[in-house]
Hints:
The structure holds two protein chains of two kinds. Chain A is 76% helix and 0% strand. By secondary structure, chain A is an all-alpha fold. Chain A has a single domain, classed as MetI-like fold. Chain B folds into three domains: 241 residues, 3-Layer(aba) Sandwich (Rossmann fold); 105 residues, CATH 2.40.50.140; 129 residues, CATH 2.40.50.140. Chain B is built from eight helices and 35 strands. In chain B, helix 3 crosses helix 4. The longest helix of chain B has 18 residues.
Amino acid sequence: xxxxxxxxxxxxxxxxxxxxxxxxxxxxxxxxxxxxxxxxxxxxxxxxxxxxxxxxxxxxxxxxxxxxxxxxxxxxxxxxxxxxxxxxxxxxxxxxxxxxxxxxxxxxxxxxxxxxxxxxxxxxxxxxxxxxxxxxxxxxxxxxxxxxxxxxxxxxxxxxxxxxxxxxxxxxxxxxxxxxxxxxxxxxxxxxxxxxxxxxxxxxxxxxxxxxxxxxxxxxxxxxxxxxxxxxxxxxxxxxxxxxxxxxxxxxxxxxxxxxxxxx
Amino acid sequence: xxxxxxxxxxxxxxxxxxxxxxxxxxxxxxxxxxxxxxxxxxxxxxxxxxxxxxxxxxxxxxxxxxxxxxxxxxxxxxxxxxxxxxxxxxxxxxxxxxxxxxxxxxxxxxxxxxxxxxxxxxxxxxxxxxxxxxxxxxxxxxxxxxxxxxxxxxxxxxxxxxxxxxxxxxxxxxxxxxxxxxxxxxxxxxxxxxxxxxxxxxxxxxxxxxxxxxxxxxxxxxxxxxxxxxxxxxxxxxxxxxxxxxxxxxxxxxxxxxxxxxxxxxxxxxxxxxxxxxxxxxxxxxxxxxxxxxxxxxxxxxxxxxxxxxxxxxxxxxxxxxxxxxxxxxxxxxxxxxxxxxxxxxxxxxxxxxxxxxxxxxxxxxxxxxxxxxxxxxxxxxxxxxxxxxxxxxxxxxxxxxxxxxxxxxxxxxxxxxxxxxxxxxxxxxxxxxxxxxxxxxxxxxxxxxxxxxxxxxxxxxxxxxxxxxxxxxxxxxxxxxxxxxxxxxxxxxxxxxxxxxxx
Lengths: 264, 504
């Protein structure tokens, strides 16, 4: 017998995967979020989350850590990527590799090493939790910021810069009016790639402190205490926040790629 | 100022990349205010590099660029009163049409004079006002015929429209010189013709000096007041389009500008030249026996009945080109191309007449290859990035070689020639090319080929020290081919180099 495939049938494996591992779990998540331990529909998890200063504080703290991490990453990555993309240095790929190399080393090893270094410097690392969180996350996510920035800056057509200089712009003006606006797509994808995981990542913090400081660790603690309902709800809240952030950045980058309007 | 009427002047400009690649050399040029000057040459000839040096994107390795008599060769591009229209337009994709054109205006600072309460005058450096910018942008759009396009995104424009915006963006700043780097290269033929005329009109209306770079000889002839033909980083000829076309100074210019028949010829009498086996009257006066290159434009050859005219030949092929026929005629071993409005059937025999003013003579640049060489241990000679077997006995009259390879002079003296510096001369006909790199004494790429009726003249350039071999060969090779250079032992003429004391 001859096997015949319709082209549409080729997507069946992925559809099965999607249903089993994305849609069903999401439904389960929603179910748990809006039920109590007995399986009755309720908003109590919802109200509990938003009325507790403890959980809201964690949310805010996570947000702050993620935001500051993103900014620090951007501040380090942009000049690096700029210099790398603009230099004629022949070994720049080796240099670029140096920034990416840490990603190839086992995560646990990296965080453990960082912990040792930080405790060596600070003595007791629990003294500066915010600083240490940001340091840990920056260390982890920096390559994700450098790479998209490097790509968008090295793709930048040099003739735009020449045209700007030709029209009377000094070096700084060329950067502000041409380089920066044209690298916005790179900034956006870098920000997305750093902000979102640092919102939810808890391994770094968990390994550094073993305590519930941010959203990720909060969810982890609920689930490990078999409190499915509260854990599910917090996950859902996080999901919605990420969805909104993604939507906002997409809108922003669409606007840019359509070349409409001015950014500066 | 008024030091000179030249708005821009290039003096001995030279540009070397990476320490050894010479892009531009001995570049001397004067451009008068309001002129339309075109840099014309094949790709990689250095014309764009020169333009970029005027714009300030590249700094000359040596030499000066004077603008109104002042040296600007070290100024950054934003300090030069010069604007560029880029080959690929380089319109800012994040700005709309209006903002693209206003880009330069927003950065401009003008000095305004005011009067204070006491009636004293004082000056202030100010930005242009919104209304002024608006007015100028509108006017620039009007000049390029794109009124109403202000709010459009540049990515929605066609190539021709982008081109116009690029021009508007440059001229809105009222530069002293407008530089155009192959601005019409990306447009289709019809669009290009239209833009040529428009650019020419724009030049007339604005009165700005235009420096235009192109590899399209027709474009250069149509638009320019002055054409600068460039090859290999050096100016070949500067002149009006008619001068360049009618009086090319060398075979490169003749070959590059328009179609031409190029032959080897010899002057055989007062204003008489012989080529293609016939003698012609000509207008160029050279001494008798001078070897010359003869250039005849295809349209200067008139067809007549066989027996009349100086030449007789058989029509090999004929192609209809719209306005004229292109007829290839074989005259013995020579081939000649004629452009004529009347047709001639292939296979028929025709006569051809060339009037004296249709014959252009040029002193031969290359008749013999000359190099400085050194004799090696094995009695070969090293020159032009290669080693060739040679007959060293010609250096000393009556000498011969002994069994060990030492030279014994007529007087019986034994000389070790290793390291002796010699002058080497090789006739252009003595050199042949080969595919087999290992059998040649040197190897290089063909950088130029010119058809001369019955053979091609090639220039082979070595990679290492850019030594040139000029040679004649009836076979067709391609420019860019890597070939081995073969010179028979007996065709290498050696003479001893004058030693230090003898010089001068």
